[in-house]
Design brief:
single chain, alpha+beta, Hypothetical Protein Aq_1857, Chain: A, 6-stranded mixed sheet, 3-stranded mixed sheet, 9 strands, 18% helix, 43% strand
Length: 110
């Protein structure tokens, strides 16, 4: 099972953002889980040009995503999607390891 699956929609948005910032060749999307939020843990997404010891790099749909060792424990089997509709717009994270989530979808409990 992959740590993170990146949908085509998410990959297209990541490529757009990297291109806008001029970081297409040098950066990957770093997906991280940190303490905080109303449910105890929250997701962080940021562009990063460093790969550290213990990081796992995922290449899917033409983009690179980097996950650190600790975050990988919480993210195994997660899908990263991008939605753009009348009701919501942004990255959507479907995490099968989340036991509880908050209303905004930005934090979770494991």
């Amino acid at each position: 099972m992959a740590i993170v699956d990146i949908t085509e929609s998410a990959a297209q948005q990541i490529k757009r953002l990297l291109d806008t910032e001029g970081k297409t060749e040098t950066h990957a999307l770093r997906m991280k889980v940190v303490g905080g939020g109303c449910s105890g843990l929250q997701y962080q997404l940021a562009f990063d040009d460093q790969q550290k010891d213990g990081d796992t790099q995922i290449e899917e749909n033409g983009v690179r995503v980097v996950v650190d060792e600790k975050s990988a424990l919480y993210l195994v089997g997660t899908a990263l999607d991008y939605v753009d509709s009348l009701m919501e717009s942004g990255f959507k994270i479907e995490n099968p390891n989340a036991k509880t989530t908050c209303g905004c979808g930005q934090s979770f409990g494991a």
